[in-house]
Amino acid sequence: QGRAGPVAPDDPSAARAVDLMRRIGAAVGRLHKVGVVHGDLTTSNMMLRPWAPAQAPAAGPTEEGAPSLEGEIVIIDFGLSSQGSADEDRAVDLYVLERAFGSTHPRAETLFAVVLEAYGKAYKSAPVVLKKLEDVRLRGRKRSMLG
Q1: How far is CA 101 from CA 43, 52, 115, 142, in A?
Q2: What is d(CA 13, CA 7) in angstroms, rounded to the nearest whole number?
Q3: Residues contacting 62, CB < 8 A, separation 6+
Q4: Known catalytic residue: 40?
Q5: Directed axis angle between helix 126-146 and helix 87-104, to 10°?
Q6: Cross-strand partners of 121
């Protein structure tokens, strides 16, 4: 049997994944809001810290044996980080994360728009960064075409 297909954002069973993607986008937005660019923003540099009992939202349905997706997103490994206000650098952070989803979590790649939506809500200057992200994507595609 082949690998399962992509997660569709409107699939009712995808609600937990969509919620996780929102928390990722909000965490990145908060990081950029305080002027920190991670430099190596991948899901390998994110951890889930279980909710404190007072913070825990009402638990949604879970699949038998599925890992918990509940908790606070904690971004780790700031070895390549910098402090600055360059929207280009923030856009590259988002591009690296998007590429990581494509290579490491291909089923969730279709949900990356949810990350960007939550990022936009958490970071007021997001529209400029998201415009730069489009430019970064175009440069990335040209680079991959030329080898």
Answers
A1: 8, 28, 11, 20
A2: 9
A3: 16, 68
A4: yes
A5: 60
A6: none
Q: Which of 19, 40, 77, 89 is catalytic?
A: 40
pLDDT tens track for 46-92: 999 998 776 666 555 555 566 678 899 999 999 999 998 899 999 99
Residue identified by tokens 């390998």 is: 44
Which sign, positive or negative, has the C-alpha torsion 137, 97, 41, 84? positive
Distance (Å, rounded) from C-alpha 27 to C-alpha 100? 16
| Euclidean distance between the first and the last CA atom of the chain, given in angstroms as a whole number | 33
Strand partners, 47: 74
The tally of CA atoms less than 13 A away on the side-chain side of residue 140 is: 13
Q: What global pTM score does this model have?
A: 0.82
E strand or H helix at 76: none
Question: SS3 for 115?
Answer: helix
Residues found in the chain: 147
Strands (E) in the chain, as ranges, are 36-37, 46-49, 72-75, 82-83
